[in-house]
Amino acid sequence: MLDIPLQIGGGGFLYWAIVFFVLAIIAAAVGARGVAGISMEIARIFVLIFIILAVVALLL
Question: pLDDT tens, 10-56?
Fold first, then answer.
């Protein structure tokens, strides 16, 4: 059996999604709605990429 770790390529995506989510919360609290919106979109994209890579890793 192959000894392949679960985080083949998607390990960093979840970390960066959390970072951008926290940045969006801080920006929204300060009042920078544009930065908050962009940060939430980036976080959403990273979460979707993480989910896709996790499903592919589980199927392989």
Answer: 457 778 888 888 989 999 899 888 989 999 999 899 889 888 988 98
Region of 7 on the Ramachandran plot (φ > 0 left; ψ -120 to 50 alpha; else beta): beta
> Which token pair is 56?
């592919």
Residues 19, 24, 26: CA angle, nearest 5 degrees: 95
Q: Which residues of 1-16 are buried (b: 16+ CB within 10 A; e: fewer)?
A: eeeeeeeeebeebbeb
The total of other beta-carbon atoms located within 10 Å of residue 55's CB is: 11
Distance CA 16, CA 30 (A): 21
pTM across the whole model: 0.70
